[in-house]
Every structure is written in C-alpha cells, then in structure tokens.
C-alpha cells in the first residue's frame, strides 16, 4: 500500500518519504532541507499530506516552512508546537493517513532531546536520532537513564520491522562496535555487508531491531560479553546495564 522512498539531505541525513501507491499522496519524515524533497515530489508527481517531526533539531525541521508554502492543509506532527500549524502529539497517539488506510503510533523517546518521538506501526519505525545502525544518538537534553529507557522501548518492537534512522552513520559506528567486540561474528558479517553497500553508494538504512540487538553495542548493555569488554577498556566495574550504557555513551563521545 505504501512505498518508502529515500531522500538524501546534507552530508548524511535521510528524509524518509512514505508514498501511498495509488493516490500519489505522501508523508515526509524530518525534512531538514526542502530542496531535495521538492525535487522528489515533482519527479514522482506526488502531493504532500503531512510532515512528521521526530525532534526540533535544524537538520530535521529546516525544510518545513518552505514545504508548507507548497500546499494548503499540510499537517505537521511533533511533540511541541514548533510551527503555527503543528498538531501536538503524545505517547500512544495513533495518527491515521491516506483516508484512514495507514497509521502510525507515537512513542515518546526522550534522551537525544526532550521532545524526541518515534513513529511506528507493525512494519516500520521512524527513529530520528534515537537509534542508528550500530549506534545511538548523542544525549543533548535528556539523561542517560531517559535515553536508555527510550532505546529499550524501541528494542521491544517486533524484531523484523524496518527501522528508519535519520542518519547514515553506520560505518563510523561499526568501527566503535568492532573495537569493543572484535570477535562478535554477527558484527563481522555485517561490517562486510555494509562496506559493500557503501562502496556502491547504497544506504545501509533501514535496519531491523533483530539485527541491531546482535551488533549494536547500545542495545547490548545486558550482554556479558559487551559489559566485560567495556570494563576492560575503561578499567572499571559496571554493575548494572544502565551503568554500562552511561559509560558506553561517554566512551563513544570521545572515541
Ligand atoms: Zn538531532
Ligand atoms: Fe540529526
């Protein structure tokens, strides 16, 4: 019923476009820049129904005003009132689109920012800057506890749903993951796959929760192998998963 199209923005952003196949209507997630979105709308001959914003950072909202000028009745959804016609949403809200045929549920996921949201259904989750492949967002406004709780909530989604992150940071994240777990065989296989994709200029996103649980250190804070590796690197004892997560995030920040 829908196709999800990849729009590249800036150096490494993805603006995800959800296109209803028959009607040629669409939703855009996190349009940080209007130009590549407008090009896609024109080349595909589709009209914009709604804009979903995972959080307030400029690389996710910078194109909104210009896009709103292209048509009337374009709805904007975010946690806080970022624009005049913002529809403010909260945890558990179900948003419906395309005459009720498509829906996404709102999950509040503070940590990277306090207003951060994930939009998900049984097939997909748009994660913004919460979760990246093999990594996670930096903690700018929330606490490590909030960020970890948000990641754990997303990790509870079905393991095979497609996870659409807002940045292509995978290869960089993988060098950190490999530094920690050089013997993780799933990680070694994934590093090969990613490097082939990047050589061809292909995105490594979407990923899946099932894959991330095997290779993403930030989703492995309960795994003995990861905790031991981090304890060894930092020369400290990490008694609980949240201790592990907090130190892991700090370690990655200076890696
Ligand atoms: Zn951000
Ligand atoms: Fe971002």
How confident is the prediction overall: mean pLDDT?
97
Number of separate strands: 14
Write down the overall geometry: globular
CATH topology of the domain at 1-89: Metallo-beta-lactamase, Chain A
Radius of gyration: 18 Å
Identify low-pLDDT runs.
none
- β-sheet strand percentage: 25-35%
For this entry, what is the oligomeric state of its chains?
single chain
List its traits.
255 residues; alpha/beta; Metallo-beta-lactamase, Chain A; six-stranded mixed β-sheet; binds zinc ion; binds fe (iii) ion
Task: Summarize the structure in words.
With 255 residues, the protein is an alpha/beta fold. The protein has a domain at 1-89: 4-Layer Sandwich (Metallo-beta-lactamase, Chain A). It has nine helices and 14 strands. The protein has helices at 34-44, 58-61, 64-68, 144-155, 170-180, 185-199, 209-215, 224-234, 241-253; strands at 2-9, 13-20, 25-29, 47-52, 75-78, 86-88, 94-97, 102-108, 117-120, 124-128, 131-132, 135-136, 162-165, 207-208. The strands form three sheets. It has a six-stranded mixed sheet, covered by helices on one side. A six-stranded mixed sheet has the order 7-8-9-10-13-14. Strands 11-12 form a two-stranded antiparallel sheet. Helix 1 (34-44) links the parallel strand 3 and strand 4. Helix 5 packs antiparallel against helix 6 (185-199) and helix 8 (224-234) crosses helix 9. 43% of the residues are buried. Bound molecules: zinc ion (ZN) and fe (iii) ion (FE). Fe (iii) ion (FE) is lined by residues 57, 59-60, 129, 166-167.
